[in-house]
Amino acid sequence: MKNRNKGNAVAGVLAVIAVLAILFAGLGVTFGWVTMSDSPDKSTIELNKTELKEDTDKAVEATEKFIKDSAESVEEATQDAAESIQEGSEEAADNLEEAADTVEEETDKAADKAPEEDKQKEVSPPAEETESKPVDSEEDAS
Questions:
Q1: Residue 45 near residue 35, CB atoms below 8 Å
Q2: Of 11, 34, 46, 134, which is most buried, counting CB atoms within 10 Å of its CB?
Q3: How far apart are CA 90 and CA 96, in angstroms?
Q4: Which residue in 12, 10, 32, 9 sits closest to 20, CA to CA?
Q5: Is the dihedral angle over the CA atoms 111, 113, 114, 115 positive or is it negative?
Q6: So what's the pLDDT on residue 133?
Q7: Which residues have C-beta within 8 Å of that of residue 25, sequence separation ≥ 6?
Q8: Residues in contact with 28: Cβ distance below 8 Å, sequence separation at least 6, in sequence order
Q9: How would you write 25-46 as a 3-class SS string?
Q10: How is the chain split into domains, by residue range?
């Protein structure tokens, strides 16, 4: 059973190598890296090393530029996010400060109002004393 798995692994590796070789050959012919000639006496496959090196250098430069641009974009996005967070934090702090001021004002108003209510309670007689008492007719008759 183990031999069968090893055979599948080897076949997979060979398949990947074959795909890469076909891909390289196709790209090589397309980009002019590889030229093939066939004559009655001999067949040749030539690699144009100069063209291959130039294209490789261009690809490296383009990749470096892409990485640099991507890094700059990420840095700008990070700075924008940090500024946004800072602005949000400042706004939240301002809102919190306003809320604290409002609570303090309301507390002061309530504290000022409470003694006035206490004074009004002290000045006005209790409800029992102000009510008129019913007069008994027997007491009035005597």
A1: yes
A2: 34
A3: 10
A4: 12
A5: positive
A6: 57
A7: 34
A8: 34, 47, 52
A9: HHHHHHHCCEEEEECCCCEEEE
A10: 8-47, 49-115
DSSP 136: P
DSSP three-state, residue 47:
strand
Amino acid letter, residue 117 = E
Tokens of 68: 């640099």
Predicted local confidence at residue 71, as pLDDT: 92
Look up residue 30 and give its two tokens.
């397309």
| Contact (Cβ atoms closer than 8 angstroms) between residue 33 and residue 47 | yes
Confidence at residue 4, expressed as pLDDT on a 0 to 100 scale = 60
Other beta carbons within 10 Å of 26: 11
CB 33 within 8 A of CB 26: no
Residues of the chain with confidence (pLDDT) below 50: 1, 142
